[in-house]
Amino acid sequence: MSRTGATRSEIVSTVAVVVLVGLAVWALWPSSPEPPGGAAPPAAARPESDPASADPAALAAARGAAGLQPCPAPSGALPAGPLAGITVPCLGADGTVDVGAALAGRPALVNFWASWCVPCREELPALAEYARRPGSVPVVTVDVQDDPVAALRLAAELGVTLPALADPRGELRGALGTPPVLPYSYVVRADGTPAAVAPPIPFRSADDVAAAVEKLR
Length: 217
Description:
Layout: H1 3-28, H2 56-66, E1 87-89, E2 96-98, H3 99-103, E3 108-113, H4 118-131, E4 139-143, H5 148-158, E5 164-166, H6 171-176, E6 184-188, E7 194-196, H7 206-216
Parallel strand pairs: 3-4, 4-5
Antiparallel strand pairs: 1-2, 3-6, 6-7
Helix pairs in contact: 2-5, 4-7
C-alpha cells in the first residue's frame, strides 16, 4: 500500500473514533440537570395557583379538611421593603393578604412550595415543627404553579396547618427575584429586607430551619 493510501486510511479511522466518542458523550450528557441542593425546578407550563379558578365545592371541602391557620393580618407596623403594597389571595380561606403590611415590624420566614414538588413534601413537616417551637418567627408558606385543591389536600395529608398564600400573578416571586426552583425560602427581616436561604437546600429538620433563621434574621 502506498504512503498516501495509508494516510487516508489513518484519517478515516481517526474521524470514526472521534465521531463514536462524541456520540457516547452526547448519550451520557444529562438532559435535565438537577439544580443545586436537590430543589425541584418548576415546569414553565404549569398553571398558577389561584383559588379563584378552582371548583368552589372542591375548594371548600379541601379547605375544611386542611384546617390551615388563618393567613396573617396587618401587624400595625409601617410596611417597607420589596413586599410593601403586594396583595395576594389566602389559600386556606376566602380573602386576600397585604403581605408587606402583614410581615412588617417583625422577622418572618417565607417559603415557596407546590404539591407536585417532592422536596417540598419532605420540607413542610420540618417547617411546621419549627413553627411550634417557643421563640420561632412566623412561618408563611406560598403555594405556586399548583392546583390549589391539590395543595390543600397535601397539607391535610401531612398534617401541616401553616398559613398559606397563593401567588397567581407571580407578584411575590417577582418582588423577591425568586429563582425558578422549589422549595425556596426567605427570611424577611423586621425592616422588610429579604434574605434568601442559599443555597436552596431543603430543610430536613426544625433545627435546620432554626439555624437558617438565626443566621439571616
